[in-house]
Amino acid sequence: MDELAQKVLGLINTRSDAHIPEEKFTYSDSLSQYIDIDFSEHEAKEHWKNICQTLEELENKLGKKVNLYLAIVDYFTGANKVINSPVLVEIKVLRETEEMAMQDSLTGAFNRRYMDIYLRKEINRCNRYEKSFSVMILDIDDFKKINDTYGHVVGDTILSEISAIFKSTIREEDVFCRYGGEEFLIIMPETTAEKAVCLYQRIKEKLLESDIHKRFGVTVSAGTARFRPNKDNLVNLIRYADISLYKAKAQGKNRVVNYEG
Known about the structure:
The protein is an alpha+beta fold. The chain has helices at 3-15, 27-31, 41-62, 68-77, 91-102, 112-129, 143-150, 152-169, 193-208, 211-216, 234-250; strands at 133-140, 175-180, 183-189, 220-227, 256-258.
């Protein structure tokens, strides 16, 4: 990591609400935490160099430390007018707004609309930077039978409690969505097929120890698929995961199958 990268990482982690591990730092991804425009790695590096200079100039004028957000806003919208119509984004505020508008009220998962938006953005990012990610579709086994036996109130309770298990198991960077009915989808950035399967195994272990499994016998099946940059698209990726889920069901349920096409 060069000197500028160390400086930028230090500023992000000490002067804003964002936090980026050293091993995951890139100039472009770190800048996307604050401004909703895609830059190449070279462009982002130049912007960060100028942002650091702007920060120093502001601190010299004001005689005190300045928040990183202020320096970024000043750089992009100040006298130099780096871009004509900037859309600046404070990631914390954006996430809170998205959660209110795009969260499923019963499960706390993001809804289908947010899932589609996030997947398209992740696909564009991965195609541009030759990166990969995985998705996992999870389906509660025999959920109709559970509803028919115990009623929809119990069904809703199961949906809520199993969602809590999913959310407590995934990483902070993973995105948990309600795909529809009793189906859920997890988006796992920069995750291999093997790690996606490992996540399912952790979810399964927690579920089998849970009260809803002991009381109602609830289990979950899953299918995973890995996005290959500049080879796959959104439709195929979901179809691959769906095919894998169908195979998991056909093989006896309560298991995961990874797509190997």
